[in-house]
Amino acid sequence: MSACVPTRTPDSAHTPSANNPHAPPPGKRFRIAGADLSASVAVFLIALPLSLGIALATGAPLQAGLVAAAVGGILAGALGGSPLQVSGPAAGLTVVTADLIHRYGWRTTCAITVLAGLAQLGLGCLHVARTALAVSPAVVHGMLTGIGVTIAVAQLHIVLGSTPQSSVLDNLRALPAQLADLHPAALTISVLTLAILLLWPRIPGRVGRITRVMPAALISVAAATAFSALAGLRVDKVDLPSWRSHALAGLPEGPALGLVAAVLTITLVCSVQSLLGAVAVDKVVASQAELHPGVRRSDLDRELLGQGAANIVSGALGGLPVAGVAVRSMANIRAGAVSRNSTMLHGVWVVVAALLLVPVLELIPLAALAALVMVVGIQMVSLNHIRTITRHREIVVYAVTSLGVVFLGVLEGVALGVAVAVGVSLHRLARTRITHCEDAGVHHVRVRGQLTFLAVPRLSKALHQVPHGADAMVELDGSFMDHAAYESLQCWQDSHTAHGGSVEVTGRAGTRIAVPAGASGPRSRELVGASHSCCRPWAPWRNHHCDRPQEERQEGLEGRRPSGHQLASGISAFQRNTAPHVRGELARLAREGQQPAQLFLTCADSRVVTSMITSSGPGDLFVVRNVGNLVPLPGAESGDDSVGAAIEYAVDVLKVRSITVCGHSGCGAMQALLSTPPGGAQTPLKRWLRHGLPSLERMGAQDRAWARLAGRAPADAVEQLCLTNVVQQLEHLRAHESVARRLAEGDLELHGMYFHVGEAQSYLLTEGSGAEPLPEEVFDQVAPTAQAEVERTPSG
């Protein structure tokens, strides 16, 4: 993506090597940015207690967690393909590692880690990294959920002052006896740790913004340690033996088949978690391109090589398996890291702590670390992911994978999940419902599902129920049609029209159905609509790019001056491809006049294409665009009544039934509001942005809950202001006389919408009760397959 590519400079002496796109410029290799230094400290403060806690949860020597954190930070950070991803011991590997230690012992587990690293190196050399992304998200999230449940149940016993068993079922059976025999000291430490973990991020106001600089994990463990020491509680504490007695990897001992399965399991879990983490980091960086201008997209094959090298060294030195860790990676990005130096530095700080802070670390109660890891396990069960998977009808895959991981093991659970996912996909592909009915003299043939060769006999039977010479409509509700089905439909259509009949082929909601690449001719265009050959079928709005010669497009990519004929080329493409299909509808609108159902007020940003994100056509929306999607208050000093005039015209003359205010991510107007100091020359832009100052004041108000995005807090201040601005402009709308009157009459609705450009995801505003802990405004994600599932609460 262009947003992630550094600007090319004419001076080749400052250009990173083509063979190593993430390498720093020559002559600056050892310079460390201040942002990287501060980010490394923030990540270190999170990684230190988590590394000890994960080592405790696996039953490995506690030093093994520190070794993995140091090696993951330094080696994976230096060699990996994702500059801002932080690697180390991961909670997703806890169950696997604990099982291996229980079966084969610690030294053999280290050898298995080394072999898994070698396997990752082999996979990286074969360039198969992207194959891991083909795994269904339901399987991945089901695996993480199963691991999280297993971790939480096991650590609950340590929280209560006892020792966990080897399996989930054994831990559940032992829980009643454990509850009857509580250890007050360990329970006190655990409750204190849990309370701080839960409450620290929720401290309100300015104090909360200051305190959240320190991670909750560090504060909770430090507070529990201090309380234990001051109160003189007798609890088990961290025991770090001398590094001289630290156990290194040994020769693997055990049945060959079991060792091979263990290596495959570690390789699979480490690789999938690291690669998915790198993709997630890319998404976050792309959405914050202005904050990370020099960070390029991850090289997944190189990331796999870096993870393999880190696992080889970590295992050889007696450390836990290493993988990319989402929590630490997101903390690294939020702290402002600009290069891989922050990841490497955090590993250096872990080494320093492991060598110089042993007396301090040995004061930490084990119950505090267990409580910390238990919360991490619970957080791996994401309700947001469950809602998304349910909307995509993959809950069966998710449930089977989760239960398989909990009761059978990680490799067995993932294998079951993949098998069920394949079965569900085959079922969807083969299950096609075809019906025929007659309505007012028109014969309707409706196809629900994917149209493949398996459905051709039923399709042919339904089509031949249409009498010769009759009017017919074929409604295709699916996203794919193979060549056999296409040929069958086209042959029947040719025959039917030759006998005097008429045929109209449509999608249920105006969707377009993909056809085989070789299909051509007028009939294929009736199925998919007109689109240029190199853009078919998903992006007819980009036809003007396709009509440019290849050399011109290449020049545009390299930043040179385009030919200047792009506008004329786009008009020509419209006249040739699109106009024949919309001419009848536009002629009707020209006769009847416009009758839009809603006023759509959005930003002038070129990336927000209103017709695309709302699936609307000519005559559907009355669109008003301005910088920042602002609605000036009536009577406000602006010198521009164009927005108020458009609102009055839409409400009083066009009689629209709803008004939508749509903000978007990365809004330049909101960035300007946050960064431009008051005063100075009052340019037209500054005078216009005055109408956004109430949004800025609303965001800073202490008595208002911040808007949330699909259950999560906004990523940064710009996103928070973009969301708040939508809510504030809806209030400005209610102040307009015509809007207030229609709202009182009950025949007008106001909606808030937010479009995340980088994710191509729309969100609709729903207003909560305002009572804690629910936020006042929540932007809910719109499901891609069923937009009607999102409840849109009328305002007013």
TrEMBL record:
Residues 1-27, 544-565 are annotated as: Disordered. Residues 35-399 form the SLC26A/SulP transporter domain. Residues 544-561 have a biased composition (Basic and acidic residues). The chain crosses the membrane at residues 37-57, 64-84, 104-126, 138-162, 182-201, 213-235, 255-281, 338-357, 363-383, 395-424. It comes from the Bacteria. Keywords: Membrane, Transmembrane, Transmembrane helix. InterPro entries: Carbonic_anhydrase, Carbonic_anhydrase_sf, SLC26A/SulP_dom, SLC26A/SulP_fam. It is a multi-pass membrane protein. Its main location: membrane. Coiled coil: none annotated. Catalyzes the reversible hydration of carbon dioxide to form bicarbonate. Belongs to the beta-class carbonic anhydrase family. This is SulP family inorganic anion transporter.
